[in-house]
Amino acid sequence: MGRQMQRVPELSEREKEVVSWLKKGKSSWEVSVILNITERTVNFHVRNIMHKLNAVSRTQAVAVAMEQGLTFRDNH
Question: Structure pTM?
Answer without folding.
Answer: 0.84
